[in-house]
């Protein structure tokens, strides 16, 4: 199990938990680059986020990108 660096929730991440024989749930979601995370003020420090935070961050980044692109 891993701890979310944003909210502290426990969650499982296949790459972090070394269960490499199956795809992680996060591979089904759009990925955020380190630059995306910095723009959101979220530094994962080499970790992953819990499902709730990752979805929140992806939505927030999508909104930022939409307003930047005008
Ligand atoms: Zn979280």
Structural topology:
Elements: E1 2-3, E2 10-11, H1 34-39, H2 51-68
This protein binds zinc ion (ZN).
What would you say this structure looks like, in words?
- By secondary structure, the chain is mainly alpha-helical.
- The chain has 2 helices and 2 strands.
- The chain has one domain.
- It has helices at residues 34-39, 51-68, and strands spanning 2-3, 10-11.
- Strands 1-2 form a two-stranded antiparallel sheet.
- It is elongated.
- 11% of the residues are buried.
- The mean pLDDT is 83.
- Zinc ion (ZN) binds at residues 4, 6-7, 9, 49-50, 52-53.
Q: What's the short story on this structure?
A:
It is built from two helices and two strands; from the N terminus they run E-E-H-H. It has 70 residues and is mainly alpha-helical.
